Amino acid sequence: MNHAEIEALARKWVVEAADRPANPRVQQVVVRLLGDLCKAIEDLDVTPNEFWTGVAYMTAAGTSNELGLLAAGLGVEHFLDLRADEAEKKAGLEGGTPRTIEGPLYVAGAPESAGFARLDDGSESDKADTLFMQGMVLDQDGKPVQGAKVEVWHANLMGNYSFFDRTQSDFNLRRTIIADENGRYAFRSIIPVGYGCPPDGTTQQLLTLLGRHGQRPAHIHFFISAPGHRKLTTQINIDGDEYLWDDFAFATRDGLVPPISRIDDPAQLDAKQVDKPFASIDFDFHLTRENATLPAAEVERLRAAA
Ligand code: MBD
Ligand code: FE
After folding, report:
1. 116-133, pLDDT tens digit by residue?
2. What is the pLDDT of residue 306?
3. Cys-Cys crosslink for 22: which of 18, 136, 210, 251, Cβ 3.0 to 4.6 Å?
4. Could you tell me which of 243, 283, 299 has the C-alpha nearest to residue 83?
5. Are 55 and 49 in contact (CB under 8 A)?
6. Which residue puts its alpha carbon closest to atom 2 of ligand 1?
7. Does residue 40 sit in helix, strand or coil?
8. Nearest to 164 by CA among 300, 68, 299, 238
9. 3-class SS at 68?
10. What pTM was estimated for this model as a whole?
11. Which residues are in the CB-under-5-Å shell of ion ligand 2?
């Protein structure tokens, strides 16, 4: 069959088959995706066995809740970032901290504190490098944003996230920090370890067939939000990680790899009330002004809530 014939079929199955009120946007998207799928089946001579293998794959990926992970690993989530960047550039909006993907492991409802939080429950203190990270939330003009909400979450030394990893305490390595009157936030935590896709999961199964690993470099996630400003979804990476520029989710970006200092001065250890040298990261978040002509920076997606 040629493409015109396939497009006519897709229109028949979606648009012409409708005999009651339909959602036109859903029709538009489905007719396109269905047509594109059938063209791929035709052009690549996909066999019935291959087609049903794909159906079983999507069923298994959904059943194990790995479709969000798959979207990250295939680059689609990063593609949405590139499109958001493009839309902002076109609207003349520039200068903010680069966005990067949220990933599938955010959990709503983390404990909130003013100015400072300790993220880790102390269970890995013996093995971990202690991290202090601090900075300001600034607006488009470089002025501090008092009361900005800094949501932060990251993995433990196993590369696992609390909630999804039921062996961790509730909200371990997840907090909401409200920036102080000078726009400052600060937290104490541990340096995380990079995430790896579940080795027996559906995402890694496909990545292996594609000749790819499923590793992420060590990173820390953030949502930064404040009224009148575009919500920023981003991450910082831990410099020196072997996967820093080889992220399976394509999320590392220039501007998101801050220098880490190693502090061993006894006076500074005292001041932080720690008994061993620690790592320190200074990082300011730059927000951009809310802009009604742009798609909302706040993304709605199904998220876990503990
Ligand atoms: C992660 O920690 C992550 O950030 C992404 C994008 C995908 C899987 C695990
Ligand atoms: Fe992550």
Report:
1. 999 999 999 999 999 999
2. 83
3. 18
4. 299
5. no
6. 195
7. helix
8. 68
9. helix
10. 0.97
11. 103
Residue 163 DSSP symbol: T
Percent of the chain past pLDDT 70, that is, above it, reads 100
Q: Are 248 and 100 in contact (CB under 8 A)?
A: no
- Angle (nearest 5°) at CA 189 between 172 and 279: 160
Please give the distance of CA 303 from its chain centroid, rounded to a whole number.
12
CA quadruple 259, 264, 266, 269: dihedral sign: positive
For the CA atoms of 193, 199, 200, 204, the dihedral, rounded to the nearest 10 degrees, stands at 110
CA of 147 to the centre of ligand 2 (A): 25
The residue ranges of the chain whose pLDDT is under 70 are none
Pick the closest to residue 193 from 166, 227, 155 (CA basis): 155
Q: State residue 263's pLDDT score.
A: 98
In the structure encoding, which two tokens stand for residue 96, read together?
A: 């903010």
- The amino acid at 220: I
CA of 29 relative to ligand 1 center, distance in Å: 27
Proportion of the chain in helix, strand, coil states, percent, rounded to 5: 30, 20, 50
Query: What's the mean per-residue pLDDT of the chain?
Result: 97
Residues having CB closer than 6 A to ligand 1 are 69, 72, 101, 103-105, 195, 216, 249, 251
Which amino acid is present at 12?
K
pLDDT in tens, 253-293: 999 999 999 999 999 999 999 999 999 999 999 999 998 89
The residue count of the chain comes to 306
- Let me know: does 270 contact 289? Beta carbons within 8 Å: no
